[in-house]
């Protein structure tokens, strides 16, 4: 059974970290909401494999337009997770598929 989350739980033009059960594993996920669009990535930096956030739910840089890794400052595009700056430039966050259902969404790991 997939976990359902409310879209309204993600701040508009903001982000949130979630822990999602996937089989026996607990997967940490970044959700970013920009206008009517929602993006999801695995919360794992391609540089060293650590989570991107030091402070819960803080994934965006000061401009609010890029995802930032708190360890070494890599910057990723929100729309596709592509790293434009930092030690893992040219690599990508792992995107996750979302199924939007009405006011909610679930993360599809298939
Ligand atoms: S661990 Fe993310 S930039 Fe180094």
Structural notes for this entry:
The chain is mainly β and 110 residues long. It has a single domain, classed as Rieske Iron-sulfur Protein. Helices cover 0% and strands 42% of the residues. It is built from no helices and nine strands. It has strands at residues 4-6, 15-22, 25-34, 37-42, 66-68, 75-77, 83-85, 97-101, 104-108. The chain has a three-stranded antiparallel β-sheet with strand order 1-9-8, with no helix packed on it. A three-stranded antiparallel β-sheet has the order 2-3-4, with no helix packed on it. A three-stranded antiparallel β-sheet has the order 5-6-7, with no helix packed on it. The protein is globular, with a radius of gyration of 13 Å. FE2/S2 (inorganic) cluster binds at residues 45, 47-48, 50, 69, 71-72, 74, 86-88.
- Shape annotation: globular
Largest sheet: 3 strands, antiparallel
CATH C-level category: Mainly Beta
Approximate helicity band:
under 10%
Q: Strand order of the main beta sheet, please?
A: 1-9-8
The parts where pLDDT drops under 50 for at least 5 residues are none
The number of distinct β-strands equals: 9
CATH architecture grouping:
3-layer Sandwich
Q: Please, what is the CATH homologous superfamily? A: Rieske [2Fe-2S] iron-sulphur domain
Bound heterogens, unique: FE2/S2 (inorganic) cluster
Using only CA atoms, what is the Rg? Answer: 13 Å
Number of helices: 0
């Amino acid at each position: 059974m997939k976990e359902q989350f409310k879209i309204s739980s993600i701040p508009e033009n903001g982000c949130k970290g979630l822990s999602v059960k996937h089989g026996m594993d607990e997967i940490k996920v970044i959700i970013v909401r920009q206008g009517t669009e929602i993006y999801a990535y695995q919360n794992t930096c391609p540089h060293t494999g650590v989570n991107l956030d030091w402070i819960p739910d803080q994934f965006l840089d000061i401009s609010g337009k890029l995802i930032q890794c708190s360890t070494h400052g890599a910057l990723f595009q929100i729309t596709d997770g592509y790293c434009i700056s930092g030690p893992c430039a040219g690599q990508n966050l792992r995107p996750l598929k979302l199924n939007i259902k009405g006011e909610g969404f679930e993360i599809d790991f298939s």
